[in-house]
Structure formats: C-alpha cells, structure tokens
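Researcher: Here's a chain I'd like modeled. Treat it as a single chain, no partners, no ligands.
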Amino acid sequence: MQMLGDDTSTLAKTIQDTLRSFRVDAEVKQEDISIGPTVIRFGIRPTGKPELKQDAQGKYVPVKDAGGNIVYESRTRVSRVMALQNDLALVLEAKTIRMEAPVPGRPYIGVEIPNKNSRLVTLREVLESKEYQAAKVKSKLTIALGKDVAGAVRVGDLARMPHLLIAGATGAGKSVCINTIIASILTQAGPEDVRLLMVDPKMVELNMYSGIPHLLFPVVTEVERVVPLLRNAISEMEKRYRQFSQLGVRNLDGYRKLRAEKIARGDLSLKSLPAIVIIIDELADLMMAAPEEVEGMICRLAQLARATGIHLVVATQRPSVDVITGLIKANIPTRISFMVSSAVDSRTIIDMGGAERLLGKGDMLYLPADAGRPERIQGSFLADDEA
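Model: Modeled as a single isolated chain. Structure tokens:
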C-alpha cells in the first residue's frame, strides 16, 4: 500500500540535495511526507540565511526565537523553489510531478510524485468508512469521492455543492466518477428520497441504469430530447417555488420539516417531494446542437434550483471555452478535473494549471465551491460489473 520509510527518506534526501545544488535554502522534514494511494507528497519548507550570534565559546550559531525556531536574515522565495519543478522531476526519475505552493494550512510547498506502490481505492472501502457513514446520516446525497494524498477518505454532499462540473480527457476517470456518484446515491436513497434524470448522448455510459425505480424518465440518448427535458426541470423548479411560497417555507428542507409536522398531527395533505439529480454525461454534444438554449437552461437551473432540491452533475471530455462557457463556470463553482492534455484545459476547468500533471486512472483535482484551491484525490473505483 505504501512506500517503505527508507524509500521516502532517500527521496526526501534527493530533493534536499537537488535544492542545495541550485543554492536554494530549504528543508524536507520526515513529518511533512504524506503517502496516498497513488502519490507521495513531500513538504519543502523554504529556509534561508540564518541570523548568527556568538555563543559563550565564541562560535557563531543561529539565532532562535522564543519558540526555538531559527531566525533568518533573509528567506528563500517560494518562486525559486517552484522554478525547479522540471529539475526535480529529472532527478526523481518521475513520469510527472506536481507542485503546490503553499499547501493550504501548511507551512510548506508540496511536491507530489507517483507512488510506485500505488493501489486502487474501491468504492466499497469508501462507502464502508466511518467518514462516509457519518456524512450519509446528514444527507441522502452524500457521494464517495475517494482518498486524498494522505490516504484520508474524502466525501462530498451534492446538496451543499449544490451542482457539480466534471471534466477530463478520455480514459482519465470521468465516466467512473459519474458511476460512483450514482452508486453512492442508490445505496442510501430510495425513489421517494431522490429521483434521477440521465442524459447520455454516447448511448453506452448510463444504459446500465435503465429500469431502476429512481428514474423519472428513461435515460435520454437523443440530443433533441434534452432541451424539452431541461425545460420540464425548470417547470418543476418553478412549481416547487410557488408551492413553497404558499406554505411559507424557503426550501426543500423546510418543506420536509413542515410535512413531517403535519403527518404527526394526522394531516396527510402534503405529498413527498424527492430531490432531483440531473446527470448529463457529455455536455459538448448538447452545446454543439443548441448552445444558447442549453447554456441558458443550465445556468437558470444552476442559479435557482438549489432551494427546490434540484441538482446538476454535468460532465464533458472537451474542456474548451465553447463547451465550458464563462456563464456555466460562474454558476457551477464546484468542479472536478481529471487529467487533461494542457494547462489551458486545466485553467478552463479549475481556473489554474495542474490538471495536466495528473496521472490518469481516477487521479483528480477537486475544487469545492468554498475553496480557493483544489485538493488532489484518488477517485473511488467502481467496475462495470459491480455497477
């Protein structure tokens, strides 16, 4: 599962020696090494030229502050460390490395290299984890994302996202991610809790779900039927808003609370309202057929549908600006990027480079709506026969 301690120590020394050879003052501590399923992250702490003083024996020693930390006369710039990305990849003999400066909440620059002892993260192990079990008590739309670079389980709540944009090159893990999202929902929610609308222009990815009771309509494979489907979703959203207004509630949670109170009094007048998840497997096909209509309806749903319990999961393997438009990005702030072919594509999805340096096979950058930077996760794997 993990590299041996000796291996990580050797790699840490190689990194530090390389920095020193370029006269970059920094250190790599053992406690700053994280071992994940597919990558190992080394933390590089920029140091610098220490301030010196004479001790009782007349020797010059570094000055330390009250906390015991060395005081530096001048510090190493982060940009000097970041400039050595290709040099580090060369000496580490790595297929690709990714650097993050700084790692959020940490006092170091992260250098992520492939773990030679990599392993799959199965959907089952995430679903059975205590993190997922605790999260699903709070929401029927909890989804199993995978494990981060430290091996910790990561889950998401589609109800809070409240919409999700997924992009990545062919074979990078996008379709598997959609399957794990659907499977996560199906394992915890019945048709009375969540209903699904699926759009699959490729006609092969989502057909396995035909016939499940959660579907509001059969899986849509014809592009010309998508616009009416989205129009119906907007009508349902508006209908729910009118109903909420009449009842004096603000959102689906408020409606469900009011309904439970009425049922407790023997009043069965309010019917159950399930959440609705609209899954679009290939946005590019829809944007080619009817770009203005599709963009307009997706943006309208993304802007307004959260309170009514309607959520979008939109995926594409073509992360170009004519598919993932500025309006769509602005209205779907939670995003997942799998490996892409260029830094331009990475910026189109997550507003920064880095996804072009991923390893494929489920290696992702997950950007929550409330985060400034994405986190790296090895996505949960679900085989077709398991689905």
